[in-house]
Structure formats: C-alpha cells, structure tokens
Amino acid sequence: MKKILFLLAAAGSFGLNAQTYKLAETIAVGNNNRWDYVSFDSVNGNIFVSNAVQVLAVSADTHKIVATIPNTKGVHGIAINNKLNRGYISNGKGNSVYVFDLKNFKVTDSVATKGENPDAIMVDDFSGNIFVMNGKTNNVNVFSADKLQLIKDITLPGKPEFAVNDAKGNVFVNLEDKSQIAWLDSKTNTLKSAFSIAPGEEPTGLAIDKKNNLLFSVCANKNLIVFDISSKKVLKNLPIGEDADALVFDPETKNIFVSNADGTLDIYHQNNRLSYTKIQTLSTPKRSKTLGYDSKTKDIYLPAAEFEEKKVINNSFRIQIYKIK
C-alpha cells in the first residue's frame, strides 16, 4: 500500500511539472516602441517591461499598467533590489543607470557608466553590488547599491550578454562573440576565467540551477547548453527554436522556459541534472524573444508586436500572458 501511495505522489508531482501553457490574456500597450528584458518584482507584485524609451510597470494581480518610467533612452534591463526598495535601469543609448523607487516608481538617482551600451544589469546576491554589462566596450562596471559609486571596472575577453550569480561570490556572464561564459569573483571583483560552451554559439540568455551547480545558456545555433560549473564542462545540448534570447529556470517545478524569435517558446522539464524532457513548444508571435516569469503563479509574460518589415506597426505593442492549462 505504501508503495502504491508513493507512486501516486510521484506521478502527481510530475503531472504538475509537466502541465502545458496557453494564451490567457493580452495587455494592450499601444505604441510602436521595441522592447528588451522583462523583470519581476515578487515582493511588490509588479512586472517591469523595457520599452525603448520607457519602462512599464504592470501589476501581476490586476494585469494593468500601474506606472510608466519615462526617458530611459535605449533601455535594456531592469534589476530589482527589495532590500533597499530600489530598481536599477540600464539605459543603453544614454550610457547610464537610473535608480527608481519600487513602490512609487520615481527616479531617484542616476550614474554614468564607464563604458558604452549598458545592457544586462544584475544585483549580486552575495556582495549586494550592482553589475552592469557594457555591450560595446566589453567590460563590467561594479557599483555600490546604495551610493552608486563605481567600485571596479572589469575588462572582459568578449561581448557580455546576460549574467547570473550563485549567491556565493561567483558571477557568470555569457560572452556572445566568443561563445564562452566568463567567471567573475564578486568578492574581489576580478575575472577568474572564461570557458567554452561549444557546441553552443553566440550565447545570449543565461540562467542558473544553484542546487545542482548548473548553468543554462541559450545560443544562436538553436542550442540550449547545460554547463556544469564544478567540472567546467558542457553536459548536454538541447534543441530549441531559432534566435533565442531569454530563458528562465524555475527551481520549484524544475522547468526551463526559452523564448525564440521564430514564434516559439520551448519548455523543458529537468528530470535530473543529466536528463531533460521537452514538455511543450508553445506557439507565440514572431520576434517575441524575451520573457518574464512569475514564480508564484507560474505565469509567463511575453512582449509582442506586429511588424511591417523591420518596423513595429503603431499601436500593436502588447504583453501576452500565458497560463497553465
């Protein structure tokens, strides 16, 4: 009897993890601006969407736009720091970082970056410092979270894309033009080394499995790379759609979400550190290659628009919300 109950519990657990998604709701924004990263503030329940010259704050409860942060020229990323009630915005064309209040959304400070085209931005869970990846000058600026003072400028061997940390003093950065992952020490703010992720090429999005000491990197040659931090080796390469940019790993469900510009979103389930099963390839609007994820509700937020050649059609920009069926 105990064996039967155990099997039923295991089946129920996998059933939850393996549930598929469908489009549930669309938030109309109504402009012709492009977009980049999506970030989620789980404490205050808001999703932040970069939108070319502004940042949109969307309530996870009402799915309404609750605020617009203007004048974010060429915005790329938004980092959340709930300990200080601050958000940090990387302004790619302004070569600056804005600081804003997470509750009233007012910009409270700004600082110029020592480098061009600040792109990905991250709060390091170990040091509490802000790491800003400058895409055009191949360097990382480390700022103090409170006073925004430049602590260190770290030169990288290639173009930085997304970054993650293990909360133990290690920061990992995808190097798009080198097909490598750079390993930084956030205790000393130095570059430790860089490792190849072949057969992955031109990596962009990056996620971390802290429990299993793994990195997940999405690459331009339609590979999702599973990289073992301990051995510094690629364990798996999984097939994904074309022109992937963002991905999310949920440590609770052990699901991996990859958004691709070809109009697909791949969802994998981690059975163990060496085994992965594709749950679903979700049909999405073309060019929707960034996503946000609510770890509480398990909802996916996907910016989308209609295009005429390379131009966004006016009033077509929207945020699509996908829920478990």
Question: What is the gist of this entry?
Answer:
The protein is mainly beta and 325 residues long. The protein is built from 1 helix and 30 strands.
Say what the CATH topology of one domain is.
Methylamine Dehydrogenase, Chain H
Portion of residues within helices: under 10%
Mean pLDDT: 92
CATH class of one domain: Mainly Beta
Using the 3D structure, state the CATH architecture of one domain: 7 Propeller
Radius of gyration: 19 Å
Task: Tell me about the largest β-sheet.
Answer: 4 strands, antiparallel
3D shape: globular
Poorly predicted regions: 1-16
Computed structural class: mainly beta
What is the beta-strand fraction?
over 45%
Q: What do we call the CATH homologous superfamily of one domain?
A: YVTN repeat-like/Quinoprotein amine dehydrogenase
How many alpha or pi helices?
1
How far apart the termini lie comes to: 32 Å
For the secondary structure, the number of strands is 30
Task: Please state how the strands of the largest beta sheet are arranged side by side.
Answer: 1-30-27-26
